[in-house]
Write a structure and sequence with these properties.
Keywords: Glycoprotein, GPI-anchor, Hydrolase, Lipoprotein, Membrane, Metal-binding, Metalloprotease, Protease, Signal, Zinc
Membrane topology: Lipid-anchor; GPI-anchor
Radius of gyration: 22 Å
Organism: Drosophila albomicans (Fruit fly)
Largest sheet: 8 strands, mixed
Subcellular location: Cell membrane
Order of helices and strands: HEEEEEEEEEEEEEEEEEHEEEHHH
Strand content: 35-45%
Bound molecules: zinc ion
CATH topology of the largest domain: Immunoglobulin-like
GO molecular function, one term: metalloaminopeptidase activity
Strand order of the largest sheet: 5-4-8-2-1-11-14-13
CATH superfamily of the largest domain: tricorn interacting facor f3 domain
CATH class of the largest domain: Mainly Beta
Mean pLDDT: 92
Helix content: 10-25%
Length: 374
């Protein structure tokens, strides 16, 4: 009797949780009437007055998208703290079909949903391009594009990104849900004395004005918006930036040998264990960048893993003990596992996050034991 009452209570609780979850997500989730397939994204970090990195950026994004419906009179996506100055819609022949007045854009501050009204319905199964020009802002804490610095004889700025789970919308207007996967191509403007890395290989650099350059990165694999990442810094690379490297402040270069060796052995072991080598997932590059201030310890961006300095840097007498080395191995093995579990195969919604973390947690222990780094 007790058992059946308990089962009834559990059933009622499960129904309530489902109903509450549905109500909470109503109004927040994107409809799947319009799907993006490609983001052509340019972000220009403005130089500050003293020649360093400024606290705002000019962004331009051209999103290729489609619908399979015949009655789509608006496109809804996300943005947060971006000031849009231009919104244009192009058809499949790249002919401008609508210059959308900024005042006609509908924006909900609570849900971050941005709705672009259309004068004519989209034609089903044809490519359109939705273009935005906007200003975004660099933050000193939290998520989005983050500013930090390290000190040698003077202070040096580092800009890193943290976009999981819902912060890509702080960097560019986008369909900021994990199931809305697409390819991305990034161009990144930066002052000349800095260098930049992103998810994929640097394929070219062009000069822009006296003191700035634009780096062009290769097209990413199909991935979620939260996977996009870049680091702008004066970091030094141990290894090859176009393939496999650890990037750190130059004075930490001598202390990244251990983490480099661990990462090399871990990726080799995964390539054997999974019978699907990393490069076959669709990205040739795997970089690790340090962050002195990173709150979350680590972020598994595809091709550009960001790890806290205390994990990647082993300083004699300070962070080179056995326990610390074990933590380094576990963290590197964990973040690399996400290239398979989370990045290549992705959750459809955040309620399945435990699957990402469950697999990565299992393999961090399994692989750390396998590689047996001393
Ligand atoms: Zn994880």
């Amino acid at each position: 009797m007790k058992g059946s009452v308990l089962r009834l209570q559990l059933l009622i609780a499960a129904i309530l949780v489902t109903l509450i979850a549905r109500n909470e997500s109503d109004g927040y989730r994107l409809r799947r009437s319009v799907l993006p397939s490609f983001y052509n994204l340019t972000i220009n970090i403005q130089a500050s007055r003293n020649g360093g990195l400024g606290y705002s950026f000019i962004g331009e994004v051209a999103i290729t998208l489609q619908t399979n419906q015949s009655d789509v009179y608006e496109i809804t996506l996300h943005k947060n703290s971006l000031d849009i100055s231009s919104c244009l819609v192009y058809n499949k022949d790249r002919i401008l079909c609508q210059n959308v007045t900024i005042t006609s854009l509908k924006y909900d501050q609570e849900t971050h949903l941005l709705t672009v009204p259309l004068l004519e319905a989209l034609t089903a199964n044809e490519n359109y391009t939705l273009y935005f020009k906007y200003t975004g802002y660099v933050k000193s804490r939290g998520q989005g594009v983050l500013s930090e610095f390290y000190k040698t004889d003077k202070y040096h700025s580092v800009y890193i990104t943290q976009l999981e789970p819902v912060y890509a919308r702080l960097v560019f207007p986008c369909f900021d849900e994990p199931a809305f996967k697409a390819k991305f191509q990034l161009r990144l403007g930066r002052p000349s004395e800095y260098n930049a890395v992103s998810n994929t290989r640097l394929i070219g650099t062009t000069k822009k004005g006296n003191n700035s350059y634009v780096d062009h990165f290769d097209v990413t694999p199909i991935m979620s918006t939260y996977q996009l990442a870049f680091v702008i810094s004066k970091y030094q690379a141990r290894g090859n930036r176009s393939e496999f490297a650890i990037l750190s402040a130059p004075e930490n270069y001598n202390y990244t040998e251990f983490s480099f060796n661990v990462a090399e052995r871990v990726i080799d072991a995964y390539n054997k264990v999974f019978d699907m080598p990393y490069k076959n997932l669709g990205n040739e590059v795997l970089l690790f960048a340090t962050s002195g201030w990173f709150d979350d310890n680590a972020m598994d961006n595809w091709g550009l893993i960001i790890l806290s300095e205390k994990i990647l840097v082993q300083k004699p007498g300070y962070t080179d003990g056995h326990t610390n080395k074990e933590i380094t191995c576990l963290n590197i093995a964990h973040e690399i596992a996400h290239m398979w579990f989370g990045n290549s195969v992705t959750l459809s919604w955040w309620s399945h996050y435990w699957l990402n973390e469950g697999f990565a947690r299992f393999y961090e222990i399994f692989l750390t034991h396998q590689v047996n780094v001393k």
